Amino acid sequence: MALSPPSRSLRKRQPARLSDDLDYDLETLLKEHERSGIEHRALRDAKKQKNTEQSDEDAKYADAFKGYEIPFDSLPALCIERIFAMLDSPQDLYNLAFSSKFLMSLLTPEAVIRSAVFNNLRKRDKGNRKTMGSIMGYISNRSIHVPSAHRMLRLLNAKSCERSDRCWGKNLNTGKAMALNRNSCSRPFGLALCDKCVKFGTTKVPYSHFSRFQQGVAFHQWNLLMDPQRDPKSGEVNGPLLEVLELQQIENTYANNDDKKSALEGIVQKALTNDGKYCPVHYEEEVAAYHEIFENAEKEADEHVAAALERDQQKYRERREERIAKRMTRIRSIYASLEEILDDCPLKDVALDCRWLESDERCIKFTCHLVEQKLGNIISAPASASERSITNAATSIKQIFNTLHEKNFFAFSYIENSGNRFRRGIYEYCTNETTPLDIMQSSVAGDVHFIQALEEDKPVRALVRALNRMRGALPRIFALSAVRNNPEAPDVDAENRVDEFRKLAEVVWNKQAPNQYGGEVMSFNTIKETFNTSVEEFKIMKKNVKDYLRDEQTRRFLQRDNAVQGRDNFSRQDAVNQVFVPKTVSIW
Asked: pLDDT tens across 421-431, in order?
């Protein structure tokens, strides 16, 4: 019958010799291991030489990649602590540290805190850091017993409630305590508690309780208290420093808040003296040390993340600049092909007018909406654009602009001598206040209906369709149609009045057509009806304005004082002129 191997508790372990660690020379240890490694390899190679003969080339590189192994337990304690500090996973640190008593004795709070803070730095999952932050919140408030490094590591890796047999969610069939909430990173009262223990094992106090926000009192969710928990195996007291009964007795005994705080300080000192691992003085030192380690680790982690992000952004900027340079080279060659094809087009300057975007991936922005739309697919992927597709797009653009030139579209001779007031306003607007380039910026200039109107020899319809999508064009055309210049009154005041009445006309048009820049283009019938109704309303408003300005009370108002009280740089004449720009919306 084969005997089973002895259990781990019966195995012989080397005692930890930590007293000489500070004076131990790591370099001497490495030299000893290197010397023993050389001897070991010499014996191994001698044995191999008897069995096989290696070529000269193999013998030349035989020792090039050979190394030696150092048992992990043989490293000095300081070296192992450094290795612990480099682990950024609490799970890995737990598996390594709890593999032997020797390694457990070398675990430090700094290694545990850093493993939690540096875990998953570049990912959104910061659960371990939040868990450590929850524990450090209670420690910084001096409200719980300072956990050891081993306990902190267990709290970080806890999967089930630590109350074990006293767990409110324990399963009697399996004998296991309830699992912790995976979506929660908090450790209430510095303990690993399940939801049911938090709900049924705590005491709820009113929000007016004196101990809320007091140093030395551990609260959860602002009004839950819990008694300290004693480990049945080790007898160690964990969690809150004070019992709920003591806090409630203070609440019942004293009426003055100062007396309550004094009594609270007294029982905190008593709890540290009787149940704590540290005296009050050492407790403060230990808490300060934990807090400093946590703050330094968070600062270092944030700086590391910021530096890594900056490096990534720098690489992204370099790749982007390289990508833009390649696109720009290709797009400039495409633009050169367009210039060659449109060389004999009379409206070449209008078609090829553009703005180069040196720092944008689009690289180019054509002024004409028609050209931008025709070349959209080519500009978006210039590397895959074929010469055939470029030629077809350029030919299509050339045909449209040749048609515009053949129809004398931008000469506007077809509306120059029109007797229609609206057409006279269009002519004055197109010849004096806009350019062909501005008209071709319209989103409908060059679409199917625009080209169809040109082919049917209806340039006015095509022009109105293009002006329909130019912001401010139709209101201005109506103003030019409704208010004409008076050549018999060339003085400055008359010109100012014309401009003011035209502003009033624009307000009237915008009031009659509030959705003129919506998703649908205004039809010609809608424009005609809006024009007629706007003319009638403008006549009424123009008459009212003239009557108001001629009124005797208005003149007396202007002659009282030049300034309006409480309004700097606002004269009475400015107040009267407000009649030309009435409000179009109600203000409550």
From this structure: 889 999 999 99
